[in-house]
Design a protein that fits this description.
Blueprint lengths: L1 H29 L7 H12 L6 E6 L7 H4 L5 H4 L9 E7 L12 E7 L2 E7 L5 E5 L8 E3 L7 E4 L5 E9 L3 E10 L3 E8 L1 H4 L7 E7 L2 E8 L8 E4 L4 E9 L6 E11 L6
Parallel strand pairs: 1-2
Antiparallel strand pairs: 2-4, 3-4, 5-15, 6-9, 7-8, 8-15, 9-14, 10-13, 10-15, 11-12, 11-14
């Protein structure tokens, strides 16, 4: 009986060893084989720089291949690293190590592909994007802040520990607002809101309510929960030119950090 029990345990141990081995072999297919040489990174960077346009995006796959940022950093500004989606980009340059792919290119077909040692550079064209008529983060010098001191757009970390390029709106009281004059209103207003992870992680004081006004007429409200899904807000605009005000409030607002990004977009073909 004792020998049978020992043999049964040994069989389980061998089974576990076998499973671990299979998993390790499978993972080897996901982990890039061979460390890319600095010369390969430099060649990829030069190739991108030769044709990159303002609305092009550069991504590295896998995302944790940090060595690549030493050579591609000048092609990857903070605004791009902190993006919420690819809605305002025309093309993606993907710098891939081994067989890795970026999630943002999985459903796209490459227009071109070039190898530099163990690095593959692929260029993808995104579906026709909406025209950016007005970017609020680019117009912070014209913004008027109420209830806080105006700050330029910067990177904020969300509750998924992802960097996001946002306009910071700190809440030290019940409400705060930010207004912009002479905004073109031909299109839709689209954006995102987040709560800084340092405050959202405790799941207290939420949700944050963002209300949007055009010439002091409310056009919509967007709720941002501490651990809610990352979802955009989008509201139709009435046309012409006017004043846009973003009003933020929370039930427990003391020292909470809220961030938002927003654009006025005109859909391809001039349709609203």
């Amino acid at each position: 009986m004792i020998k049978a029990a020992i043999l049964a345990r040994l069989n389980w141990l061998w089974a576990i060893v076998l499973v671990v081995g299979v998993v390790e072999v499978a993972l080897q297919w996901q982990i890039p084989q061979g460390e890319p040489r600095p010369a390969d990174w430099k060649k990829a960077a030069r190739a991108i720089a030769a044709e990159k346009q303002p609305h092009d995006l550069v991504v590295i796959a896998p995302h944790w291949a940090g060595q690549g940022r030493m050579y591609l950093g000048q092609l990857m500004p903070l605004r791009d690293l902190g993006r919420f989606d690819t809605a305002i980009y025309d093309r993606i340059f993907e710098v891939s190590v081994g067989k890795a792919r970026s999630n943002e290119t999985l459903n796209l077909v490459a227009e071109s592909e070039t190898r530099f040692g163990n690095i593959t550079l692929r260029r993808y064209r995104l579906p026709p994007k909406a025209e950016v008529v007005y970017s609020f983060s680019n117009q912070m010098n014209e913004a008027v802040a109420h209830g806080f001191r105006r700050r330029e757009a910067r990177v904020m970390i969300d509750h998924w520990f992802q960097p996001r390029w946002v306009i910071p709106i700190p809440l030290s009281g019940n409400t705060a607002s930010l207004s912009f004059d002479n905004v073109p209103l031909d299109g839709v207003l689209r954006g995102y809101g987040i709560v800084d992870y340092r405050h959202g992680r405790h799941n207290k004081g939420g949700p944050v309510m963002l209300s949007i006004y055009v010439d002091e007429k409310k056009i919509g409200t967007h709720e941002v929960a501490n651990f809610g899904p990352l979802a955009p807000f989008q509201f139709e605009l009435p046309g012409d030119v006017g004043r846009v005000r973003f009003a933020v409030k929370a039930p427990d607002a003391f020292n909470r950090q809220f961030g938002m990004i927003a654009h006025v977009l005109r859909r391809p073909g001039g349709d609203r």
